[in-house]
Amino acid sequence: MSIEALIEKIAYGIEENGSKRKLDLFEQEQAIRGVIEHGLPALPVLFSSLNSGGLPPNMTRLLIGRVAREAPASARDEARGGVAHYLTPDRTGPTRSIALQVLSEEFPGFDDAVMAVLQVAEDVTSDLDFRALALVGLAKMRLSGMAMLRLLRLLADPEPAIVTHALDVLATQTPPLDARPVYSAVLRLVTSPIEQVRRHAIGVLGLYGEIDAVEHVCMLPSTKPEDADAVRNMVHRILSRPRNVMRLQPKNFEHLIKHLLEAMEFEQVRVSSNLRDGGIDVEASVCEKQGGLQHQRRVLVQCKRYSHAVSREAVAEFVEQTLKPAKSAQGLFITTSTFAEGVHKVCSGQRLDLIDGAKLQEYLDRHFGAGVYCIRI
Question: pTM value?
Fold first, then answer.
């Protein structure tokens, strides 16, 4: 049976005893299977039927989706292209809407389908509601890094509805390893005078922001209860994830080391507030036993929240300018990264312990619990 005849059968039923009778479920499934067996040539006929008023739009969408989804593996690219062909501005609204739905729901993980839908959202000449519909579709899809960067441009769109829908899409995505471009783009919107944009942005910061985002939003001048609720939800989301040590301000990193040393039972721990402390970021004391007697040994700590290796020269400077003048003091050099080759020779014969990023992560997990802090560069 031809595609047209099958579509008419599904739409109007069959002739029986001189009158039309609607198909029962089994007969309807058989007719649908007949359309699908025609393969991709059925797509243009189905899209054309939208304008003839035969099948209801929801049934047409179901048929187009199944034809595209059940295409053989060798024809999957052609199937996506065939549906995307009906997104062009010269097509009717119902045709474009169904093409959007099929691409976003049947091919959410295919980059060419994502780009086709994204292109509609970017088209400033298109109807605003249709651009918004494209963004609703994108929220069901998985965006590549390139698609994510293109989506970020929509955060500068003059239409608030487009901005809020773009933020909704970001809220559905898995944050990339480097979320800084998203974070920076969203952060600019938390001071938006448009309430809906502002609160959406605060919510998205809870997904892409790190601990430093808390400081930014807590400085917002707004006193509206709705904004306060959005900030609380954002803070909860951030604190529910491992806090990235690399996103702490340098002084806050020193305070984290202070808390860690206290958890490790060091005593009299304080963060240095004197710029003339000669390379001492944190100072503490540790109880030592010697000859049956106990005494407090001073511990001098230098903290480096680095993404690159700590050089031999940096450690040598700490030894010569800070540790040796302190005579009997114990030194502790802590970094989030690694130590360069030759550093251990500098430490030879010195009362200096080195803690690299791997060891620091181990201590953070042991004393604060696994998953509370992470060192992510």
Answer: 0.75
